[in-house]
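Entry 14. Structure prediction run on the chain below.
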Amino acid sequence: MIKTILENCSEAELGNILGWEILEFAKEITDNQLDIKNLSNAVFLTIGIDLIKNNVYRDLIISRMTVPQVEKVFTEFNKEINVSDYDLAQKYSGLKSLAKKYTKQFSTIMGMAEQWEAAEMASVPTVDVTSINPDYPLYDYQVVISNKATTLINGDAINRALMHLPTGAGKTRTALNVVCEHLRSNQNGLVVWLADSEELCGQALEEFSIAWSKLGNRGIKSYSFFSDSAKSMSGVTDGFLVAGLQRLNSLKKTERSFLFDKLQSKVTLIIFDEAHKALAPTYMTILNELSSNSEEKAFILGLTATPGRVFSQDENTENVKLAELFSSTKITMKVKGYESPVKYLIENEYLAHPNFYPINYEKKIDFDNESSDLTESNLMEKLSTHENRNLSIVRQAIKEYENGSTIIIFACGVDNSRELAATLCCLGYAASSLDSKNDTTESRRAKISEFKNGKLKIIVNYGVLTAGFDAPKTNVAIIGRPTNSLVLYSQMMGRAMRGKKSGGNLECNIYTVIDDIPEYMNLSNAFEYWDQSWSEI
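Output returned:
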């Protein structure tokens, strides 16, 4: 509407708005060929929203409106006004008053709402300092680790490395930042994430979806090839693939092994979760074959909290082999002023401070009198049937339950896990057992979901929830199975060590049943022990 109204103005009036020097210049250039329509358009485009904001310009525009235009605009301010009750002079003066009082509404009626909004945005004072928070952030130490990994992947010096972060320090999130950076830079890149359990695979798939939605630069496909997924591997050429190691190994043995060969030719980056397991013959074969047949040899990045296989100088060959598998290159945390990164993470609330407590019980088995060739299976069976031992575990779980804790119990076996959970339930304390023998995929997922959302406060398992299980509110771990594996012990206690900054707790309680068999170690030792086998960056 405003352009039409401007055409009702005289050349002199438009010249006053536009500026006489500009008008004379335009006349000179166009050889006096300016007409009112072009001149009014020049005024509209040059002056813009100030035609409404400036009192003089606004009043001029209203005075040049036709009577029907004034009546139409007048009534749009208030539909209940009967314009016919006003004489002509009142209509014009009344509209000028309304336009001055409700200038923003007047701009909308005149068809300049967008210009008004743009002007308001431009009028916001410039802020000297503002804080902008990312949607998928990394902690400072994770940024350092991520950058180091990306530099290695993009370089030519080596094509394998291990990312080493303590349990609970965010290996998955850090690695997925590396993955997203790789896929952003490689339009046809294919990242294969390898893991040996449904929990690890599911966690990676879910986290990638979150990460790429925040960090991605294009639409991309993610594929699942683990557990009960129906994906056949056909058509996987780029994107993000999460594959279970067992299913990949099975694929190689079938008549559809050509699909594995095709995958080999496309993969550009391989992530091996829980990389300390990579020395298993079938896993090592998959890793080596998958990385060797691509057009450009794929980079392998291992992830682990424990970069070793054994905690014994006599058997250090295993640790050396693992280091060699990843080019003896470890990307790890080094924090100035701290002898252990774990202490830094606890002090700064990334990890919960662990309080260690023993669980003793009466009439322990005298293993000194047992045969020297007692197998681990026999050991677990003997301990799982010890009534006093089981009762001590149940009592401790009840005590923590009544204190409002969220508890994870590691039992001596599948049957022991089910028995402990059933006993707690019979005593009135809701608990659930989780295992791969009796649970379906659906029931496992349902139980884990209930535990994570707080509906279930006690979950008991044997060997299922040692890795790839993230329930930050868990603040108690009862380690009821003996182990001389520092890797396993670190993983079990780590389930309760999510710190406050990661949605967890300031402190956690770690209970270990004492059986007078090989002693357990602490997490700091677990982080530092294997350093001698690696070159750190």
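The radius of gyration is 35 Å.
Filed with the rest of this week's runs.
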